[in-house]
Specification:
The protein is mainly beta and 264 residues long. Strands 7-8-9-10-14 form a 5-stranded mixed beta sheet. It has a 4-stranded antiparallel beta sheet with strand order 1-4-5-6, with no helix packed on it. It has a 4-stranded antiparallel beta sheet with strand order 11-12-13-15. The radius of gyration is 22 Å and the shape is elongated.
Length: 264
């Protein structure tokens, strides 16, 4: 293969509660050094460092190849947990003696999304998180980022629970066995308006046009297409590149489903 840039360790962190079951990148972020190619982000970072620490600080950072600005965010889920932890990465304070050796950035818990039942799967992108629980329910949160004047591009995150997708009819009573079969094992967000859920009984559901839905509680009869794909457990759902309908030529979303019986 071709020449690869060396990997740069930005930060490590401790998940102080439970074993991490799943990690979802929300924003890949970036980092800047005075020795990097000059772009807008680097200029802003250098100006900020100069304003707060003086002109000599940028020169010193260049000599030491110090990272002067970085960003990124991700979500973590622990097994059998009822919340999703949202983490933000920022440039580290060199005076912080609690940082692990080698860290040039710091990761802090920014927000926690509380759920009513234990979460079995999650998926997301920059401003959307979906989480499926052992009751067969999928909840969607959306983030609005508010930036205040003079904050150098930083703001506070406001996550709002926008929809609850349920396989159950309104007011229905279900046995523990029926509920267990609907437990969500896998989720895949295809775009902002469509996602796929896979349940314990081998059924997948495609929920579409969700970006046009007004109501909070969303029922499968009106908004989901269901299909039983296996008699075993669903082991994964992966988004694929769009394909063209052979009859109309129209572009369509695509995904693949894997199961524990070895079928895709």
């Amino acid at each position: 293969g071709g020449h690869q840039e060396p990997v740069v360790l930005l930060a490590t962190f401790d998940c102080f509660e439970r074993l991490i079951y799943s990690i979802q990148t929300l924003a890949e972020g970036s980092y800047c050094r005075p020795t990097d190619n000059i772009d807008t982000a680097t200029v802003v970072a250098m100006a900020k460092k100069t304003a707060f620490e003086g002109a000599a600080s940028v020169q010193q950072a260049a000599i030491q190849r110090e990272i002067i600005e970085c960003s990124g965010s991700f979500a973590t889920l622990s097994r059998n947990d009822k919340k999703i932890n949202m983490w933000e990465m920022t440039v580290a304070d060199k005076k912080d003696e609690n940082l692990p050796d080698g860290n040039c950035s710091q990761i802090k818990l920014d927000h926690q999304l509380e759920h009513e039942a234990s979460i079995g799967a999650m998926a997301g992108r920059k401003n959307i998180i979906i989480a499926g629980d052992i009751m067969g329910v999928v909840v969607m949160w959306k983030r609005a980022r508010r930036t205040s004047f003079g904050s150098w591009g930083k703001g506070s995150n406001n996550w709002t629970k926008t929809h609850k997708f349920t396989p159950w009819k309104p007011g229905s009573l279900n046995t523990p066995t029926e509920i267990s079969k609907q437990s969500i094992l896998k989720l895949c967000l295809l775009n902002s308006g469509t996602f796929v859920s896979g349940s314990k009984n081998g059924t997948i559901r495609v929920w579409d046009n969700i970006d046009k839905i007004k109501e909070f509680e969303v029922y499968k009869k009106r908004h989901a297409h269901s299909m039983k794909v296996t008699g075993e457990l669903i082991s994964g759902i992966r988004r694929l590149p769009p394909v063209n309908d052979p009859n109309t030529g129209e572009g369509c979303l695509a995904f693949s489903v894997g199961s524990t019986d070895g079928h895709v």
